[in-house]
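Per your request, structure below.
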């Protein structure tokens, strides 16, 4: 417990740099949003790997001349700022801004980046149907459709909206924009959504949605990028884990964890392996894996850190260590304001852990917070209320 607490302090101390990095990204996005109507060029925001192995965001202005599921081609305004890879690989593209795009679309993107999905939808609602000529500006139309589908589906994944709207919008996006640079990401989100939906249904409906989830994840195998292919395998591994096929899950997670560089996929694979170890009764080993991963994770990789802390909380909860689980879940809520999905998951998990500690008052506070801040209702049963 002392070592785990010490590591918590290390990461809490790093919040300054994390906050600065996040603030810088938001400020840049806000500058784009507030000046979008006067931009004389398209903009591509993308990731570049530094000498230390971390990723930093860069931007290039110019004319976007090609978009496909595997990459984005841009003619830069200046060769001085040209990206090292052109086309920019899909997995490196953060977002695109088109000079003719409505101001509200850029504003919605900013709100989406910081997890304010309701506000993003309000911005998108300001865009009139005839404001974008879909036949003449198909790439801008695709961006609009993406953010509508993405925000609705993210709200559904946190329980704030039904799956029907976001799921249908995302399925339509995949069908109508199969040439989009968001195509594989859309399939990955559909896989997550179908799987989450299967957990709430009867056996027959669950089996149908598990098949849909597998199909969506399997679509990523067609990508030219090894990273994107790995993301599909990770989705299949999570399905295997949740249906109890631990050996298949362990095999798929181990395969993904054999990458040479420290990537999001490597991190997800290690988290998955820790969950398998915990489920197999090796909670101490699982905790060690996650603590090592926390130390290795860059300070600006806030989404990754949030997911690791949630996994750590789950391991502690599964091994009946509610006090340590509470500490891990609180880290997610307090330190990662933009990680909305992870924060909701942490708060939902906190309810039962507070009750195990005899803190019904804190459990009720958490339920109210979920309802008021995130519009999520916690489904309770008699057993959970008497723990």
């Amino acid at each position: 417990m002392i070592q785990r607490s010490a590591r918590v302090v290390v990461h809490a101390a790093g919040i300054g740099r994390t906050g600065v990095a996040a603030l810088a990204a938001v400020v840049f996005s806000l500058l784009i949003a507030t000046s979008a109507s006067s931009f004389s060029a398209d903009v591509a925001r993308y990731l570049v790997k530094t000498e230390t192995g971390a990723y930093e965001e860069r931007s290039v202005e110019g004319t976007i001349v090609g978009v496909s599921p595997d990459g984005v081609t841009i003619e830069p305004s200046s060769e001085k700022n040209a990206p090292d890879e052109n086309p920019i690989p899909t997995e490196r593209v953060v977002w695109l801004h088109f000079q003719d795009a409505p101001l509200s679309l850029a504003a919605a993107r900013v709100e989406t980046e910081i997890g304010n999905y309701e506000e993003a939808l309000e911005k998108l609602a300001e865009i009139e149907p005839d404001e974008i000529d879909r036949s003449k500006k198909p790439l801008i139309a695709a961006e609009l459709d993406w953010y509508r589908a993405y925000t609705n589906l993210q709200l559904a994944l946190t329980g704030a909206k039904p799956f029907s709207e976001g799921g249908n919008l995302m399925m339509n996006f995949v069908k109508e924009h199969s040439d989009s640079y968001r195509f594989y990401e859309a399939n990955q989100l559909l896989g997550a959504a179908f799987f989450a939906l299967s957990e709430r249904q009867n056996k027959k409906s669950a089996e149908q949605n598990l098949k849909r989830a597998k199909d969506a994840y399997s679509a990523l195998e067609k990508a030219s990028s090894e990273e994107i292919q790995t993301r599909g395998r990770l989705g299949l591994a999570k399905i295997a884990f949740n249906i109890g096929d631990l050996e298949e899950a362990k095999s798929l997670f181990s395969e993904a964890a054999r990458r040479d560089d420290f990537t999001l996929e490597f991190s997800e694979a290690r988290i998955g392996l820790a969950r398998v170890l915990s489920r197999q009764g090796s909670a101490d080993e699982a905790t060690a894996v996650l603590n090592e991963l926390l130390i290795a994770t860059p300070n600006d990789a806030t989404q990754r850190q949030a997911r690791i802390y949630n996994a750590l909380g789950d391991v502690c909860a599964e091994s009946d260590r509610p006090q340590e689980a509470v500490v891990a879940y609180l880290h997610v809520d307090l330190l990662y304001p933009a990680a909305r999905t992870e924060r909701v998951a942490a708060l939902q998990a906190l309810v039962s852990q507070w009750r195990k500690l005899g803190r019904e008052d804190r459990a009720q506070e958490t339920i109210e917070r979920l309802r008021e801040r995130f519009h999520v209702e916690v489904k309770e049963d008699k057993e959970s209320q008497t723990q």
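The radius of gyration is 21 Å.

Regards,
D.
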